[in-house]
Each structure stands twice: as structure tokens, then as C-alpha cells.
TrEMBL record, chain A:
UniProt entry tagged with the keyword Transcription: no
Record's keyword terms, sorted: Ubl conjugation pathway
GO biological process, one term: protein neddylation
Organism whose genome encodes this protein: Chlamydomonas eustigma
Coiled coil regions in record: none
Domain DCUN1: 40-229
Stored Pfam families: Cullin_binding
Keyword Ligase appears in the UniProt entry: no
Identification of the protein by name: Defective in cullin neddylation protein
Function of the protein: Neddylation of cullins play an essential role in the regulation of SCF-type complexes activity.
Assigned GO CC terms: plasma membrane; ubiquitin ligase complex
GO molecular function: cullin family protein binding; ubiquitin conjugating enzyme binding; ubiquitin-like protein binding
TrEMBL record, chain B:
GO molecular function annotations of the record: ubiquitin protein ligase binding
Any one GO CC term of the record: nucleus
Name of this protein: Cullin family profile domain-containing protein
Organism the protein comes from: Chlamydomonas eustigma
Pathway(s) where this gene product acts: Protein modification; protein ubiquitination
Cellular compartments annotated: Nucleus
Main location: nucleus
Protein keywords: Isopeptide bond, Nucleus, Ubl conjugation, Ubl conjugation pathway
Amino acid sequence: MSTYEKIATECLKKTNWALEPAINHFYSSGLATTPGASSLNLKSIEDLYSSYKEKDGDTIQAEGVVRFCEDLDLDPSDIVMLIISYYMGAAVMCEFSKEEFTGGMVKMGCDSLDKLKKKIPDLRSEIRNEERFKDIYAFAYGFSCEKGQKCIQLDVALGMWKLLIGETKPWPLLEDWCEFLLKHHNRAISKDTWVQLYDFIQTIKPDFSNFDETAAWPYLLDEFVDHVKEKRGG
Amino acid sequence: MSKRVGQIKIEPFRHPVSMDPNYAEKTWSLLENAIKEIHNQNASGLSFEELYRNAYNMVLHKYGERLYRGLQQTLTDQLGVIAKKVESFQGEPFLEELKRRWDLHIKSSQMVRDILMYMDRTFVTQQQKTPVYQLGLELWRNTVVRNPNIKDRLHAILLDFVLKERNGEVVRKGLFKNITQMLVDLGHAVYVEDFEVQFLKSSSDFYKKEAQELLSTCSCHDYLVKAEKRLIEEVERVKSYLDASTENKVTKVVETEMILNQMKTLVEMENSGLVPMLRDDKYDDLSRMYQLLRRVEGGAALIRTVMSDHIKEVGKQLVQDPEKTKDPVEYVQKLLDERDKYDRIVTQAFNDDKTFRAALNQAFESFVNLNNRSPEYISLFIDDQLRRGLKGMSDTDVEVVLDKVMCLFRYLQEKDFFEKYYKLHLSKRLLSGKPVAEEAERGLLVKLKTECGYQFTSKLEGMFTDIKTSRDMMMEFRAKMAGQVGAGASTSSPSSSSAAAVAGPSHETAAPNIDLQVQVLTTGSWPTQAACCCNLPREVERCCEDFKDFYLGTHSGRKLTWQTNMGTADLRVEFGTKRHELNVSTYQMCILMLFNDVDQLTYREIALATEIPAADLKRSLQSLALIKGKNILRKDPQSKDISETDIFCFNDKFTSKLFKVKVGTVTAQKEGETEKQETRQRVEGDRNPEIDAAIVRIMKSRKLLDHNNVVTEVTRQLASRFLPNPAVIKKRIESLIEREFLERDPDNRMMFRYLA
């Protein structure tokens, strides 16, 4: 069987030989877009998944995730884990559904742990890509929410920021920002603020010389600017 | 013989009758001589007919050119002679001579013109030369007036004339007038060029100097008086001996030098400038200043600005002075007085100028809002007026006062605060059991409605309606209970969504003789109060139950809650042998009724029996036991505060000069600090939903709008309630984004889209 036939058969099998869903699955699982997807061994991906999933349930839970990380020689708080989760489109932290896991592996073009291990440096460097970073950043918000919540708690947000921004996009005001939030805000962070912070870091200079207070920045950012200016004795 | 009749033709004379050139010269010298004689006032010996004929002949025979040239030459010579004669004079005689010569010249010119009329009509017109009379004027102008020896002297003398008169000397106006008339007759341009220009310049210099001198010596008032006088003077001067066209120009000069260039200094003069005039209500001075400064550009605006700044200064001190802001009624009265003062000034001194009135209003608006207790105080002022101050005032007086207060109300930016306080105070007024000045109250409501719209006053009107409904209902109730209820003390108290009624029994009989008066209040309209209950005396309880049954009989499905913290009671009390009627609050009644059964009670026992909330209980006991001269209860120990271990006993040695004694009323008072903070928080909290609603309304209609425009629109829509803080609007927008009413445009942070 040619590889294309193999893929098609896989998809159809998955969806019980219903044509439309199979086509959808083909596109959504990354098989369509990943180069070399046709050469992937889908069976081995599924086996991999099964080795980590919960005994009675069809998801990988925290325990499985930890093992997964160990096998990859990765610390669970390593940023690569976030990137992997991004590829998997994981809805919540520390939980992967079958779709998410298999789809992610396909998108990354890996069908075994070794391949994935080799891919890790590539993944790490991906974050340097501006576009990719923006997507991952935006993804990180929903990912960090607790199940069923719409906002993320402050401490979670701070951790995520330190991870994402501290490590890859050095922003001199990160410390100030975290300190300010702990002292003055102490509540959940809205999605609007999260997303706008990225823009803020990109465009506003550390001395705030190009900060326009009528430019509709979220009020938290306005207050942050005032706070820092005050601290500087301005 | 008639063979060929000869044709006789008569032919015109063919040979031209031409004038012999010699003859022309002779004619000319005749004329020349005549002209000379005319100019020497020797015309009487001449024959008009002869001269005319001669001139006519010359022109006819084509010697017009010669005639004209000759005329020019002769006149020039003659005038030269005259000029020399005039030159020789000095001073005033100089002018007189000039005038004399001018008059003569006119006459001469006329005569010459008459003689040479034929030439004027034919030769001059054909050749387009200047007519004879005009020629005479021009030559006069060139030869005499503009003669180098005459010209400058003429100017100097004329200007000196004017200077003398300005300094108060008497001068010969007639003579001057003649000269200016001469110049005007020579042509308006001559007048302007040869006289007016210098005149205006020297006037300008003169007034510049005068302004400087006056500024250093006079007060503002004196200066303005002088300026006014000068203006009138100059107009007079023009009328007397200058050409009318100069009037505007010279007035402008005076205005510029004395007013425009000095007005700032004048207005800002320390002890006599605009500000002292305003302070001391110097209507005449202010009016004069206004009229004068109005003439120049920026004058009125200057007065307006200085007045506005001054009002703002005064106002700011008034509203921020802790002394003056202690008593609300005094505070508002002072504001009203200030406003009256400046209103009068604008009307009387500034000619009711609209721009000035606008400036006044704007100045007031700016400082009234500096003190954030203004809404509360204004409401208290109205409360005070309506409760007692209106006695003795006629209806129109009342209208006037309330209108003035409405003016102040308009200045408020935080009208929603006012609404809250007004509601509170109104409810206390309506429920106090005292007669309400219904006309005035209603009148004020109408004014508020006109100002702020129906929404503002609907609840207030609801309160009035409730009172009226309650009154009607009480009549029905009483009719029903007639026979069951005897005469006794009457009490009234309100309750939310219900009525509260308390009745006081007579101290003597055991059977309840209770006159109950209930006011049923609709919950939404009245200011919210925490529901508080206490144990009513059993007699009273029974009455209340009766009423409750009656009410719910006609209005099933409603819930009644007694508001025991708002009622009053009249008790007939026996103190030994004396009897008094006490007017007390419901709580106090409950406390006192306990002493029907025993003579002495501890604090704890009272608390237990009545279940009155602690703070209220302490307050009630304080007014019963600790007020000098009104201690109906004796407290042991005799300390100032109420403590939980105190013992109270009935004081049958209580005395009072009056039969009816009032103990502790529930009137409106200025809020204490904590209450003020609470109210502020509550009102500001209420604003958030209003801002949300405004944002949603705006976005719904516009669909896509940028941040700044949203803020502007919201501010505009809410202007009649309060002034929203842009930062708060921003927060509300973000809250709406989170609640998914709006979204930010992904490409443009400043734009928001409405999500249906």
C-alpha cells in the first residue's frame, strides 16, 4: 500500500468509515499539513499514547505527563513542554486527550520518542520566531486557565510570564510588572490584559517615552506606567 | 427787357472774418488787466458785458488756447503776490490774513469764471482742460497753501491751536473753522493730506503722553472719568471746527492711546482696578469701565476674564474654608448671596451682557464642584427652607428663593449625589408628622423635572403619592375602627412596602385608647433602610395587627413590614400629680412603656425586652436620660455614656414648663464622616451600571467606534447625572469586553466592536 493509501485508510478507520468526518480528521490532525506526514507510522503514535494514558479513561493525566517528560529528559516546567502542548492544542494543562496527543505528534512530524527528542532543539528555537511566539503566547492564556474558568489566577499568570517572557524575550520591566501586580492588583488577569501586554512589550520603550495614555491600553497597563514613573521619582 | 431773368443769389459772405493776431493780443491784454484788477478788488470799474464779449470773441476766433494759457499765467502771478503778502504776517493775524485772502480769491475766481464762461463751456470741455473755477482753486492750493514758506507755518499754528485747547485754553474756534473749511473746499484729499494726517499724529502723541501721566497719578476711577471726558471733548471739537469725517478717526486715536494700550494696567490696578470695584459694588465705575472698554477690541473680553478669575478665586476660598463649610445652610446661603451680588453687577453695570452672564455661570460651576459636599448641602438648605424658613414668606418670595437654588443646582456636576440626599431628606420631611409645605414641595419637583427629566423625579413623586394614598386609607380605616378605638395619643410611623404605625396608649387606662396613623410606603420609591424590628408594647401590637388585617384585606398579595425606626409616638404620662404629653420616637415609646409595669430596669433587661438594635438603643436612652431638663428616666450611675451595666428608673420628679414636651426628633442632619463615605461609595457604585448601559447603548448604534469617541459620547450622555471619570469608563469597557459585550479590534487596539 502506498503511504497515501495508508493515511487514508487510517483516517477512515478512525471515523468508522464515514467519509466526511474522515476528511475532517485528516485536516485537523495535521496529517494534511505536516511534510512527511505520509511517512509517519500512525500506529506507533497510538501505541505511544496508550503507554501514557490513564488506565481507566482515555486521556493522559498528570502522572502520564510526568512520565512523558522524564522519557524526553525534559523538566515539566521547561518551555518546550509548553510548545509541545501548543502543537497538541491541549485545552488544559497536564491533560492530553487522544486527539490532542496524536494530532500534536503528527504536526511535529514525530512518531517515536527518539524522533521527538531530536526535535526538541528545533522546537526550542521556534520560540524565537516572532509569529510563532505570538501564537504560543496567546495559546498560553487559555491553556493556563483552570478547567471551566475564563480567567487565570495571578500566580499562574506570573509564572507563565516569567517562563515565556523571561526566558525568550528579555523585557527589562518584567520584575517591576510582577511586583506591581502582586502589590496592587492581586486578582485574576483578564484575557484582554494578557494579550495587550504582548503588544505593550513590543511597542513601548522602557522609558515610556512613546507611551500615549489616550491610546486605549488596558487600565492595568496605565496604572503600571504610573507606578513605575512614581518609583523612578518622575 | 425780360428775356433772361437773372438769378439773383444771395450768397454768404465768403471771405472768413479772422481775427487779426494783433487784435487777439490786444484783447488778451484787456482781459489780463481786468483779471488783475479783479484780484485787486477793483472790479467795480469794469464792464461785464465787454469782458465777456472779448473772451467770447477770442474763443470764437480760435484763440482759446492763448486765453487759457494767459489765464493760467496771470493767476499764478497774482497768487504769488498774494502769497508773499500773507507770508509776512505772524501768528493769529497770519491765519486771519490767509482767510481774508481766501475769501477774496473765491469772489475773484467767481468773477473770472463768469467772464470766461464761454470758454469754460466750449474750449475747456473740448480740450478737456480744468474748468476755470477749479483751476483757480488748484492754483491757490499750489501757490499759496503749499507755498514752502506758508505750508509748515500753517501746520504748526493749527496744531498749536488744538494743543492749546486741549490744555484748557480758550481759542478762536471760528477762525480755525474757516481755515479747515478752506481746505475742505479745496478738495477733501487736500484736507486729509495737508491737515488731517498731521492732526491725527499729533493727537496720538498727545494722548500717549497724557495716558502715561494719568496712569502714574490717578486712580482707575479718575482715569476713566478723564478718558470719558476726552472722548466727548474730541467729538465736540470736530463738530466745532473740523470736518465731520475726522470724527471717527480721532475717536479711534483716543480709544487706542488711552484705552486699548492701557487697559490691562488699568484693570489690574491694585487698589482701584476692576477687582476692588467688583468687591465694593461700584456700579457706576464698573458701568463706565464697561462702556469705555467695549469700544476697543478685546476690551470687554478682558473685563470678562478678570471678573471670571476673581469670582473663581472668591468662590474657591468660600468652598474650601473649613469655617465656612461647617454649617450647610450658611454655606449655601453664602453661595446664593455671592451669586446675587454678581448677578446684580452684570445686570446693572454690564448692561445684562449675555457673554458676561455666561462667564459668571461658568465661574460658579467651576468652584461649586470643588467641594464635594455641595450636593448634600444644597439639599439640606432646601430641607431647611421647606421645613421652617418658608413661614411668613409669600408665594412669590418662595418661588424666587427656589429659583435661585435651582441655579445653584444647575452648577452641580454630581447631580446623582444630590438626588440621593434629596430623597433622604424628603422622606424625613414627609414622615415627620409635621405639616408639609405642599405647594412649595410640588413646585420644586416641577422645577427639577424640567431640569433633569422625568426619570429624576418619578420616585420622588411616588413618595408624595404614597403619603396621599395613606391619608385616604387612614380615613377608611378609622371609619372601620370607629367605636373600637378611643381617643388617645396619636402616632405615626412609616414602613417599607408597608406602613408602620405606632400608637401611644394613655398611661391611665388599661384598655387601649390608641389613635393609630399609618403611612404605607412603596419600597422602590423611598430611600432604602435596613429593616429593623423591635418588640412593640402589646397594646400597640394589637392595633398594628388590626391595621395589617384591614390592609391585606383590600390589597392581597402585598407584604407589609413595620419600620419601627422611623415612627413617632405621643404619650400621655403622669409624673406624680402632673401630667405631660411627650412626643417621642417609636423606640423610646417601647422603652417607656416598659416602665408601666416596673419602676426600675437594667440596660440588659431593656435590651432584652425591646430587642432594639444596640446603637439605636443607646441613642434613645441618651435622649431620655441624659438631656438636661428633659430626663424622663434617671440613670444610675450618673455617667455621660450609656454602658451595659446601667440601671434606669422612672423619674417622677420630671418637670417642664410646657405641657407638650418633645424628646429627640428625627430631622435631617448633616452626615457624619463614616456615613458620608458610605453614601459616596454607594452612589459611585450605582454609577457603574449607568456607565455600562450608556456604553452598550452607544456601541449598539455605532457598531464600531474608537476609544476616545466612546469616552466622549458616554460623558455627553451622562452629563445631566454626573461627570464620569475617563479612567472609570475605561475599566467598564474592559469589564464589558470580559463579559463579551464588546471586543477589541485585533488590528487596532483603539477600536471596539459591538458583539450582538
